[in-house]
Fold this protein.
Amino acid sequence: MAIDKYIITDRIREANLKATNIRTDVMQLFYENKQALSYADINKYLLKKEDKATIYRTLKSFSEKGIIHEIFDGDKTTKYALCGKKCNTNKHHDSHAHFKCSDCKNVYCLEKPEITINVPNGYITNTFNLIVEGTCTNCS
């Protein structure tokens, strides 16, 4: 699926980042893939164009600016997925679960329903990670 380059560059610039080639290439991967991507996934697509450190720095800046969020899938692999428009530098607003396919190991964001976790008074929640496992539509 071809994504308009202006959508990608606008999203990067809205986060007060320069729309460099590596940033637009990484963002393109997120728009083209419905599942969350690991560093290794992204590295596999872009290693011929960019070095590993540049890819890592791009993911870190995207996460810090609220463009992507981290998903810990239970296999000691961090994956990344696009954030909604509500996320920003100050706070990620990704109150949703993630679905991990037991067969293909892909991880997908489950946007609905939003999940609320009530913690005791005095506790402050920074993030939470909820993984639902099963079989995705591609594998079933």
